[in-house]
Design a protein that fits this description.
Helix content is 16%, strand content 37%. The protein is of the alpha+beta class and 274 residues long. It folds into two domains: 158 residues, PK beta-barrel domain-like (M1 Pyruvate Kinase, Domain 3); 97 residues, no CATH class. The strands form four sheets. It has a seven-stranded mixed β-barrel with strand order 1-12-11-15-14-13-17. A hairpin with a 5-residue loop joins β5 and β6. The longest helix has 13 residues. The radius of gyration is 18 Å and the shape is globular.
């Protein structure tokens, strides 16, 4: 028996790690429970390290949409580029492994000079778009799905000292949940989630989502606004004093299936977890 019934209010995938997300009506999960077309590409800096939006805030202005066959439509600074999934020279990049406190060496394929030129025009930085191998996409410290409730977004907005735009884009969920009656869920109800059942699929909680400076980056300008993280820090300290800043949770899927906007979600909760 579900403790709470919710609905899927929004779905996103992020074809390129640390670039703008793509809102979708359906999100297909593969046999391993990971969303297809999500974070299959990355950005490498001039030193050959896999980098992120925190180091290059204007990556927020680069958008990507997945195309059939695993390719991309990349846009930024008034430019648009179609990129095929295959092709490109093999290149190794380094990625920091927080568990080992050392770098992993990842096999990737470089997307070419045209993609690098689009990144340079948009960010002002010498960056390369790379296609990640499946092994690189599934590194042990990574999580398949990120879930946030709309009531938590409302609590964040209320805690801000001045309004900010693009809340969903800043927190980058795969799944946004709302109440079954069309209203908002209780704030931070996802903190109590054990599992969510959507039809034959089950999404099981793995860990809280620890937040960083990416939440400060305005998706419209690529400029950091520290007050966004200040408010999240305050809210997190009220719920989990002394813990890292948390907002939303990570989850893993039970296998192949499709999530759809509007789907009914049976939320199983642990009321002792919050």
């Amino acid at each position: 028996m579900a403790d709470l019934i919710a609905r899927i209010a929004g779905l996103w995938r992020y074809p390129v790690k640390s670039c703008a997300g793509e809102a979708v009506e359906t999100l297909k999960l593969g046999v391993d429970g990971w969303p297809e077309g999500d974070r299959g590409w990355g950005i490498a800096d001039a030193s050959g390290e896999l980098t992120w939006m925190g180091a290059h805030p204007r990556l927020a202005l680069v958008s990507a949409r997945g195309t059939q066959g695993g390719g991309l439509t990349l846009e930024g600074e008034g430019r648009r580029l179609e990129i095929a999934a295959d092709g490109g020279g093999a290149v190794n990049v380094r990625a920091w492994n927080g568990e080992r406190q050392d770098f992993d060496l990842l096999m990737t394929r470089d997307a070419g000079d045209d993609a690098a030129a689009l990144l340079l025009a948009t960010t002002g930085e010498h960056l390369r778009l790379v296609r990640l191998s499946l092994e690189a996409q599934r590194r042990p410290m990574l999580n398949p799905l990120h879930i946030v409730g709309d009531g938590s977004l409302q609590a964040w907005a209320a805690a801000l000292t001045k309004p900010l735009t693009g809340a969903v884009q800043r927190v980058r969920p795969n799944v946004l949940l709302s109440a079954d009656d069309g209203g908002a869920l209780p704030a931070f109800i996802e903190d109590m989630l054990i599992e969510a059942r959507i039809g034959a699929l089950t999404l099981r909680r793995t860990t809280p989502c620890v937040r960083c400076m990416m939440t400060t980056i305005d998706p419209a300008t690529g400029i950091a606004q520290p007050l966004a993280l200040d408010a999240l820090t305050q809210l997190s300290a009220e719920r989990e004093p002394g813990a890292p800043v948390q907002f939303g949770i990570y989850a893993s899927g039970s296998g192949t299936g499709v999530l759809r906007v509007g789907d009914r979600v049976e939320m199983m909760l642990d009321f002792c977890a919050a």
